[in-house]
Design a protein that fits this description.
Blueprint: H1 2-8, H2 10-25, E1 34-35, E2 41-42, H3 44-54, H4 59-77, H5 106-120, H6 127-139, H7 143-151, H8 163-183, H9 189-197, H10 212-230, H11 235-249, H12 258-274, H13 287-308, H14 319-334, H15 342-352, H16 360-373, H17 376-397, H18 425-441, H19 445-448, H20 452-459, H21 466-490, H22 494-508, H23 514-525, H24 532-545, H25 550-562, H26 566-579, H27 624-643, H28 649-662, H29 694-699, H30 731-748, H31 752-770, H32 775-782, H33 790-795, H34 804-817, H35 831-834, H36 857-881, H37 884-897, H38 902-914, H39 918-931, H40 936-948, H41 952-963, H42 971-983, H43 987-1002, H44 1009-1013
Antiparallel strand pairs: 1-2
Helix pairs in contact: 2-3, 4-5, 4-6, 5-6, 6-7, 6-8, 7-8, 8-9, 8-10, 9-10, 10-11, 11-12, 12-13, 12-14, 13-14, 14-15, 15-16, 16-17, 17-18, 18-20, 18-21, 21-22, 21-23, 22-23, 23-24, 24-25, 25-26, 25-27, 26-27, 27-28, 31-37, 36-37, 36-38, 37-38, 38-39, 39-40, 40-41, 40-42, 41-42, 42-43
Amino acid sequence: MSATAATTNHKGDFYTNQLDLALAGGQWTSNTPAKGIGGVAISWAELLRKFRKHCPNQSVTAEVAASVHALSLLGLRSSPPGSELEADDRSLDGQLDFNSEAILPAEAREEAQAAYDKLNALSDKSTSVRSTLGFFSYTLGRPQEAIDHLKHASLADADTRSQWALVERIRSLTITGLAHEALGHPDAISPYKTAIAALPAPPPTTINPPTELARWSERALWRFVCLTVTDGQSFDQVLDALRTYLSHSARWPAPFRPRHRSTLLRLHLHVLSLNPPPSWTSSKPGRLQWLHETRTTVSELRSVLTGSMSFPGSGKRNIPVEKFVDTCVRLWEVGGANADQADWVIDVMYWAMRYTFNSTRIMRHMTRLLAASGDISFSKRILDMYVKLMQHARKASDSSRNHDTNGTTNGDILPPPPEDGSDSDALFLHTVVQGIRMICRTGHAEDAAPLVPVLDEIFQRCHLPAEQMVEARNAAGLAKSVWNIVAAAQSHSHEARSKHLDAAREALAGLTGPSAAYHRALLLSLDGAAKRSDAVAAAREAVEGAPRDVRVWHLLGLLLAAEGDFNAAREILEIGATACSPPAPEDEAEPAIDTATLDVLEGWNQEWNGWPLEEQEDWAKRDEREDALQLRMTQVAIIEAVLGPEGASNRWLEVFTWWSQVFPTETASSHQTPEIPSLALTRTITPTLEIEEPQQQLEGLRGPAIELIPPSPAEEPSSGLLSPDGEKRDSKDREDKDKLLVKMRREVVKGRERIDTISKKIVVGVQGRARSNSESQRQRRSSAGSALDFGLVLSRTNSYQASSIHSRRGQIQGAAAAGASTPQLGSPFGTIIRRRSPSPPPPPPPPAPSAEKEKAKGREKREKRLRSELWLMSAASFRRQGRLEHARGAIQYAEACDANNANVFTQLGLLHVAQHNSAQAGHALDKALMLDPDNVQALIHRAKLYLDHGEVDLAEGMLTGLVSGLGWATPEAWFVRAQAAGKQGRQKEQRAWLERALFLCEGRGIREVGDALGWCL
């Protein structure tokens, strides 16, 4: 009988299913929540009418559905104007406290009470009726009555086949928890736990619009996390609760409950920042897992804010976006503040600019992040915009604020933050201080000059507690001293130099600490030999204060070497290299953090407006590995100065071995870690170069010469063009030459492949001329079989990657083995490399993406330049030993590391000079000047070549501009200029310039301090 009824009442089953889906869907304001038999959309009223008609025995179900629909409409009707269906009720961003969420206002309770009375009058008190009555009671502000109703509801017996039954169960458990919280029940979290345990697994795709299940699930998850945090649960329990919320919220559309989600997602990021990951040098697992969770949460929060935020109106701010960027920067800091990880934070800043208007905090963060990533030029532009915006903001607020002019403060209370949302004076001051040091670290003192007066302007209005004011004044004084030291080193006149040195002494007066002692030693070193003993004493003080900083040891070693105490300098540098060596990954001690004692709310929703409590690393600070490399290069220079180039040979092997260990080209993974697909950078693989035919190489050997147009003391720069032969060109030839220069510039910048090809052609000519050298030179080259094999050392390491030079040599040797007459390329390894197999082993395959470190472009470019400079330094040592073949091979490796390094062609020019080939030397130096027109050494040697060929006026013109610019403190420039004056018969100038060169030589050390250390600690 029942089977026949089920068969004949198919319409009843159909509308029962439609009502169940409509209730579970929760689209209360929709005009078409369901469909009829014929597929036509129908309204809520029509759905209930048809359900009552075809299911007359389920009148209670129809009454419950009508009551829920009416109550939901009342809740939406009482929402604030303009709020959407999925907006939060009464929550505020960052607020975790319990509020009157889901409770009807007073004006809507009368209508709700009538619906409640009608439903309560039913004699059939089923589970669904009890659940709905509890829902009504809570919304009417009667939590105890809601608990009583829900206590009699058999939620465990709900129909598992009905979606609406699951919604009722989750809703009832959530309302029970809300009622317990309203009554102050100590175990209010238990109903939320039960509700979360009953939730189905998150769907694989986003459900839009969200269902009624999503609404009550979010509310249960929201209160569960809030109670877990505020009740003092353990760190692991809080993190697990936040991860549960993230796993469910990832399938909700962006506009759904944006305040709840943004608050908890930002709290999730805050909790992650309290437990930093292992450093990138550590072999301990967990770093990439931490990065993956961090990036996933950041991406989710960014999506939520994108879907719920818009560009602010006049006088408005998007505070959630500003808090979000602060959190991202904090995560970057606790993750190591590495340049390799700055790109994703910069991407967040660019996104945040679309939802803020002239936000000073975003500009402040962008300045720091861009400097860390290596984009100094863009960082300076953002810093300039930041300073101008802050100055305009302060001028606009002067009318409403009364400032003193003594920079004091009233007690130890910080002033309130500016009402316009701009940075506080303390943060403004700190940003300008770091900006000055960042710019000075790059050696551009003129760019930092406008920022120095800004420091005094800020102090006139800055109010800080006494301790913070002392720290701020010390930091500002140190920044001023750094700028004056760099400006003095770059000054072209004695008066300007003395002025800056006096200002630096005044700024450093009274400052204490290792950084002040370091810069005091730098300042004293600029005074020459007269103050060198005082400089050594200041450097010793810096070493005592910062024994782990490699640069203080390096400075002390340079000063001792300049005094002639080479033994003490070598000992100091050895101690510094040992004391500052980074620990091995397996031996590195990570700071232990007791998560059981962590307060997850520490620093939550707090904005610090004073001087930064935690000392930040200097912006654009050089890599510690780079500083250690510079120290080792100084060690080799001292050994070569004492024992000669031959005595430094063994030391070069140690330097290259150390390099291969500390600067690995590839990073191997010691353990399996999850991949970060959305943030991994794509690897770029250098394509295999196509080798030209031998005849084409020989035909292309004699390329057009690159002409340089130096300034002339007697003519305008455009009055004529002089060739290396000294012949005047007429206007037609000059036009042809200009076209040729443009063409050559275009050829040079085509990239690495073109530069490598040019280098290969130069080597062919050099080897041909090398065969005609004297018998003694051939014997010296033949004895190079015992030379140190740096390439063998590097190739034995797992992290070494063959450069394009190796690829070309392997291809050429392969062609030679096949019968081609291609000449071999030289190498710095002498005959050892020729005894090897003609086909070098291929480079190791790239590691798995999960172990690959993201590389910032600026830092990667810097590492290539360092590698190139290291090869060039070894090439110079080989050249001074007379091992020209080794020198040429080292230059090739340097060019393969960095094809845009002008010093590569400078060393190539010096190599040609040593081989008495002035024409090729001139071409190489011209290429160096094309890449870097201000290269001091290239200008000096190019002028020397002009002088040797009788072009005295041309050489004098180049040297006049050089000694009045960057080469004012270079003794070689003054010496060559004195030679030019002697050939011109100007004995008085020759004597004066020789005395100048001698004076500069007396105060000169093994290496230039600015090149080896930089001017800013």
